[in-house]
Each structure stands twice: as C-alpha cells, then as structure tokens.
C-alpha cells in the first residue's frame, strides 16, 4: 500500500505537531476537539473523531477576517489562546482569548462544527485567559478563567452578572494556575486545572465541590498528572480536558512535548495533544499510564487513510491545514490566479517581517521531507521552516540564484548561495536525526536545505542544527511550521510535498 494511503497508526500523540491546549466535547458517537493557534490565521483548528485516536481536521473556527484580526504589531505567540469547546442545548459553543492589544475574550457558536461559525460575541466582563463555559442544572452558565476566578455569564450576549470571585487555585504556591474546566460528574462539580507552568513543571490537578461556585476541596493525590522530574519521553504534561470514551470509560486529553537531543532537551514540534485513560477511586480521577502505543483501546478503532503527500493547489481554496502569519489577504495568497498553482505576492521583504506573506503547515513528524516547485521569475521567495520572526531557516530563490538564510535571534546570515538557470525549480528541506556520535550537547535534529536537480538528485546547500528552531531557544508557545513565502514581487508554487520519514 502506498505510504500516502496507509492508515495512521494508533499512537500518542493523537494530534502530532503544534496542537496545544486541547478542548474536547462528545456529541453522540462523535468527538470534536479544538486547539490554540496563536499568531496564525485561520484560527482554532477543529477536528473530528469517532475513536479518540484518529482525528480529521474539518475546519478552523475563526476563518474569516471579521472573526479574527491579528495586527502586525502583535508579537509571535500572541493571538489566540486556549479555547474551550462545548455542546449545549443543540449548539456548539467556543470561548477563547485573543491575546492582543484591544483583544479580550470572545464567544462563537455553530450548529455544525464544520462551520460556519458565528461572528464573535465579545465578553468584556471576563478578565483573564483560558476561559471555560459550564452550565448548571438550572441553565445558569459559569465562566471560569486562569487564576482561577469565576463569573456568571450569558454566553448568547457576552454579558456577565456580578463580580468575579476566586476559586481554588491549585497547590500552595503553585505557578500559573490556569486552563480551568468545570464539570458535573455524579454528585460533585469537579474543577480541573493546570499548574506549574507549561514547561517541565507542568501538571494537572483537580478539586471538587457540591456547587459550581464551590467551595472546592483538593484531591489528596494532586497533581493527578505530571511527568516532572522523570525520564518519560513525553514531558510538560498539562492543560487537560476530560471526556467519556465510546464504551463509557473516562479519558483525558492534554498537551505535552517530546524533547530530544542532549541537555536540556529541545522540543521542536511545539506542544502536542496526547490521550490517557482515567479511572475513578473514592470519587477522584486517577490518570493511567501515558503510552506511545494506543492500539489496544477497548473499542474498535476507525482509522482513515493518511493525508495525501502532495497538494497540487487545484482547489479554489486552500485546505484547512494551511495557515498563514496573522492574516491571509486574498489578493496576496490565491490559487485562482494561475490554475493549479499557489500565487503569493510579497508584502514584507523577508521572513523577519511580521507581515510576511507565508503559507505553511505544521511539522508533525520528528523526521520529514518537504519539497516544492517554485517559479520565481517574477519575484523572490522560497521554502522555510518557521518558528517565529527571529527563528527560521529558509531556502530562497530568485530568477538567477538560490540561497540559504538562517535567522537565529538577532543574527541573520546567508549560509550558502548557488547559481541556477532561469525557470521553475524544486526546493527541498529534509529534517532528520543528528548523525552519531551523540553527546550531551547534541541537538534534536538536523535541517538540510537544498535544491533538487531535474534528474531527481538532491544538492544539499546547508545542514543546520535544529536546536535553534526550538522552544527552549526561541521561547514562546508555538512549534515549527513549514511552508512557502514571498519576499519580493510575485512567486508561484506548483505543488508542495510533505512526507514523513523513519526516525
């Protein structure tokens, strides 16, 4: 069976790559999951599953400019933080923070999770990030935010009632109590939160009370999930949500990272979504072992064929997995100008510019190969691995040459240059394990950039240490995105290949 048609394995993470802050809801036999998107447009990727393991992206919640405005002045890792997705009274509700100047919390609704979603309803009385919505038996809606504080809200208008009041905020002195989710399970209301910060100290704790407003008593076994201080391959575990599986058992989705290399370990894909079993003892959840293999789940799995390796840009609109930096004006990014090609028109003059015209997809595999056929005869552009404006590698083509550019913090350098004949050419980036011997300072991977000759041979122009495109170096909340950009004039791309490689 060709690799692009082979079903995805039942493995953790269930959503690989930059898919953090998962929020999940179940409607009948269907599961829906939303994630943070930060400075990328469209915002809030939304997924569907029948088995909690195999997920298909069905859209993006904030996919219209009138729903999502992310100005060039907003720094990377700003923007859309930590949605909560819920289904109530026949509608899907999503509340999320736009962490930009003049942003705040907003609510959108839909009858079909694939969209369209409504225009945003501002919630100016909700102060704080990571908002949650929960309805009690009387129909009152409660909004709980990081901190942890709570206020009554009418989600159909965004109006709040009364003053926000403080709830339980995790272990004494715990850093960053956040990501609250409130549930009625059995005789109790449970308040699930993250604490310890989203780095190596991340964890999940829980408390319970008789009413949604508390008071709450903490679980004596808190944190119920953390990998701090362990050698587990999945670290930074936290920001969780609870759901029942098809058989009625309980499960937890949460974010984590997979650091690699030497010390301190570098994670490059961003925070990913993982799944773990949950049992109940004495009215408290007990999180089971977090495993990399999920093939033995107690219900039938329903894998779908893997995504096609190549996008030929033959559709009138880009698929939902394609994301751009801050916005995507139709006049600057289109598949309609030259049929079967993606056309990008430059705005910023390089990937360093916050308004660069860039369209990419999340890197979802520890080793992968990407290729694109570019026509740079009317401009200059290329193929890039982007973490943010200050951390990216690119192979850039003009009509007469290609060059490899590395931006690491305040340093920007042209690593290699190579003359080429006029006409379209194939640019390629391959990400692989570092060669042996491995040592305490060995990085997580190697990013090789080059061109592909007409006979299919690859000419490598540079091989760069991947640690400089990691969160541990760059900071922030995102992961790598690989894609195409325009730095001058107009550039056209005939196709884009993304292929997982064996680790």
Question: If you had to describe this structure to a student in words, what would you say it looks like?
Answer:
This protein is mainly beta and 503 residues long. It contains one helix and 36 strands. Strand 25 and strand 26 form a beta hairpin. The mean pLDDT is 96. One of its GO terms (molecular function) is hydrolase activity, hydrolyzing O-glycosyl compounds.
Summarize, please.
The chain is mainly beta and 503 residues long. It has one helix at residues 471-474; strands at 23-27, 30-34, 40-41, 43-49, 56-62, 79-88, 91-99, 104-110, 121-122, 132-135, 141-145, 149-154, 159-166, 178-185, 188-195, 203-209, 217-218, 225-226, 235-244, 250-257, 272-281, 284-287, 310-311, 323-325, 333-334, 342-345, 357-362, 368-375, 379-388, 391-397, 401-408, 411-419, 425-432, 446-452, 458-465, 481-500. The strands form 6 sheets. The protein has a 15-stranded antiparallel sheet that branches. Strands 14, 15, 16, 17 and 18 form a 5-stranded antiparallel sheet that branches. A 4-stranded antiparallel sheet has the order 1-2-4-5, with no helix packed on it.
Low-confidence stretches: none
Instruction: Provide the residue-averaged pLDDT.
Output: 96
Helical amount among residues, as a percent range?
under 10%
Q: Any guess at the CATH architecture of the largest domain?
A: 5 Propeller
How many domains make up the coordinates? Answer: 2
Sheet/helix structural class:
mainly beta
N-C termini distance: 20 Å
| Total beta strands | 36
- Look at the structure and name the CATH superfamily of the largest domain: Glycosyl hydrolase domain, family 43
What is the CATH T-level topology of the largest domain? Tachylectin-2, Chain A
General form:
globular
| CATH C-level name of the largest domain | Mainly Beta
Helix segment tally: 1
Strand content: over 45%
> Taking Cα atoms only, what radius of gyration do you get, to the nearest Å?
23 Å
């Amino acid at each position: 069976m060709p690799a692009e048609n082979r079903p995805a394995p039942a493995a953790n993470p269930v959503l690989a790559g930059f898919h953090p802050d998962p929020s999940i809801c179940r409607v009948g036999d269907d599961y829906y999951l939303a994630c943070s998107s930060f400075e990328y447009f469209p915002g809030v990727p939304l997924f569907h599953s029948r088995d909690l393991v195999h997920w298909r992206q069905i859209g993006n919640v904030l996919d219209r400019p009138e729903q999502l405005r992310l100005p060039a002045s907003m720094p990377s890792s700003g923007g859309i933080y930590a949605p909560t997705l819920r289904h109530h009274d026949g509608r899907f509700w999503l509340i999320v923070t736009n962490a930009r100047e003049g942003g705040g919390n907003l609510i959108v609704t839909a009858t079909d999770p694939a969209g369209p979603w409504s225009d945003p309803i501002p919630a100016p009385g909700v102060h704080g990030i990571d908002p949650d919505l929960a309805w009690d038996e009387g129909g009152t809606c409660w909004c709980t935010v990081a901190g942890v504080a709570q206020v009554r809200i009418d989600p159909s208008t965004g109006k709040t009632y009364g003053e926000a009041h403080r709830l339980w905020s995790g272990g004494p002195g715990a850093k960053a109590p956040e990501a609250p989710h409130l549930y009625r399970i059995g005789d109790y209301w449970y308040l699930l939160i993250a604490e310890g910060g989203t780095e190596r100290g991340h964890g999940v704790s829980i408390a319970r009370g008789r009413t949604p407003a508390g008071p709450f008593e903490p679980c004596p076994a808190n944190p119920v999930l953390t990998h701090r201080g362990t050698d587990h391959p999945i670290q930074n575990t936290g920001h969780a949500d609870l759901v029942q599986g098809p058989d009625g058992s309980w499960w937890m989705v949460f974010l984590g990272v997979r650091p690699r290399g030497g010390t301190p370990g570098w994670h490059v894909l961003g925070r990913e979504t993982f799944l773990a079993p949950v049992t109940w003892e004495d009215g408290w959840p007990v999180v089971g072992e977090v495993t990399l293999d999920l093939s033995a789940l107690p219900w039938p799995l329903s894998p779908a064929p893997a995504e096609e390796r190549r996008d030929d840009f033959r559709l009138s609109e880009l698929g939902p997995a394609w994301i751009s930096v801050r916005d995507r004006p139709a006049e600057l990014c289109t598949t309609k100008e030259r049929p079967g090609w993606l056309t990008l028109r430059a705005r910023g003059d390089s990937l360093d510019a916050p308004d660069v015209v860039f369209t990419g997809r999340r890197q979802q595999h520890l080793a992968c190969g990407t290729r694109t056929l570019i026509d740079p005869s009317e401009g200059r552009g290329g193929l890039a691995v982007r973490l943010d404006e200050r951390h990216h590698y690119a192979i850039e083509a003009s009509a007469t040459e290609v060059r490899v550019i590395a931006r690491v913090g305040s340093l920007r350098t042209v690593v290699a240059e190579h003359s080429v004949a006029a006409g379209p050419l194939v640019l390629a980036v391959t990400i692989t394990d570092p060669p042996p011997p491995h040592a305490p300072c060995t990085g997580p991977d190697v990013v090789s950039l080059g061109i592909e000759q007409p006979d299919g041979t690859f000419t490598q122009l540079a091989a760069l240490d991947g640690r400089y495109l990691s969160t541990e170096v760059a900071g922030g909340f995102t992961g790598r995105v690989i894609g195409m950009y325009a730095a001058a004039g107009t550039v056209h791309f005939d196709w884009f290949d993304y292929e997982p490689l064996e680790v």
